[in-house]
Amino acid sequence: MTRSATILVTGATGNLGGAVVKALMANGMAVKAGTTRPEGAKVPGGVTVAKVDYTLPPTVEAALTGVDGLFLVAPPLDVEAPAKLKPVIDQAKRAGVDHIVFTSALGVDQSEVAPLRAVEKHLMGSGVNHTILRPNFFMENFSTGFLAPMIAQGGIFLAAGEGKTSFISIEDIAAVTAAAFEKKLYGNAYNLTGPDALDHAQAARMISEVSGKTVRYHSLTEEAMLQGARDQGMPESAANYMVMLYQVVRSGWAATITNDVQTVIGRPPISFGAFAQKNAAVWK
After folding, report:
1. Which end of the chain has a smaller Cβ tally under 10 Å, C or N?
2. DSSP collapsed to 3 states, the chain
3. What pLDDT shows up at residue 257?
4. pLDDT of residue 40
5. Nearest to residue 192, comparing CAs of 78, 74, 94, 108?
6. Percent of all residues in the chain with a pLDDT value above 90, rounded to a whole number
7. For residues 226 and 230, what is the distance between their CA atoms, to the nearest angstrom?
């Protein structure tokens, strides 16, 4: 991938996509920001914006025109991800895209029925140069993601039990993504984790310490978490997907720690403690 390569970033206005846009630009690449709502999209100067709606194939075809690489992300908690993303991969191949970096999820290679695993396998068989990233739960879920409103009310309410998670920052995922394009890390899959594994009670204590705000973790039953998601208007399929993810956490599978971030970018990933210090003002 040359310095002048153009990369289409899907989900470019989301937390991860936005970080990837910045990381690619820092590495001297041109970026096309793909989003379902291009009107008024906030992107850095010099970034082209394109409408990308997986349910509208013409938008995908148009957005892939003239790009060298594709950063592909699935809609969150979407059991229909294979039906939506397989055609995108096929279109990228037809468009002559040289390299696809796909963000999957930690552990999906251990379940052949996982929706994201189906996308991985389609990509691996597509004939397109590819890199698969399998990150764990994002640290930013606590600062700007779905846990932030809970923390604002002083609690974290999840059916995570006492299971530990090796949370990873999206900044590290973005750095790995940029390196994957830059170094042409074709045919590789990386399991991306932070350097330590914490349970949610420990995470709550760290947030309390740096913010001066008392935050407590409340371990819910699956039924209570599912009902809470419904009450918030989450679609039933997405709510059930979330329940499944936290079954993984309770079972201990999310506690895995790898060295893949260091292997790719030459430095260790940020710790949760450092992340909490950096974001202390968010929680005050």
Report:
1. C
2. CCCCCEEEECCCCCHHHHHHHHHHHHCCCEEEEEECCCCCCCCCCCCEEEECCCCCHHHHHHHHCCCCEEEEECCCCCCCHHHHHHHHHHHHHHCCCCEEEEECCCCHHHCCCCHHHHHHHHHHCCCCEEEEEEECCEHHHCCCCCCHHHHHCCEEEECCCCCCECCECHHHHHHHHHHHHHHCCCCEEEEECCCCCECHHHHHHHHHHHHCCCCEEEECCHHHHHHHHHHCCCCHHHHHHHHHHHHHHHHCHHHCCCCHHHHHHCCCCCCHHHHHHHCHHHHC
3. 98
4. 83
5. 108
6. 95
7. 6
Over residues 219-263, the pLDDT tens digits come to 999 999 999 999 999 999 999 999 999 999 999 999 999 999 999
Count of positions (residues) in the chain: 284
Q: For 145-190, write each residue's pLDDT tens digit.
A: 999 999 999 999 999 999 999 999 999 999 999 999 999 999 999 9
CB atoms within 10 A of CB 257: 15
Task: Give this prediction's pTM.
Answer: 0.96
28-52 confidence digits (pLDDT tens): 999 999 999 999 888 998 899 999 9
Q: How many Cβ atoms are within 10 Å of 232's Cβ, its own excluded?
A: 10
The residue type found at 37 is: R
Residue 1: what pLDDT? 47
CATH number, span 6-136+168-193+256-269: 3.40.50.720
Q: Where are the domains of the chain?
A: 6-136+168-193+256-269
**How far is it, in rounded angstroms, from Cα 143 to Cα 121?**
33
Rounded Cα gap, residues 191 and 34, in angstroms: 25
Tokens of 146: 């779905």
**Which residues share a beta bridge with 218?**
157
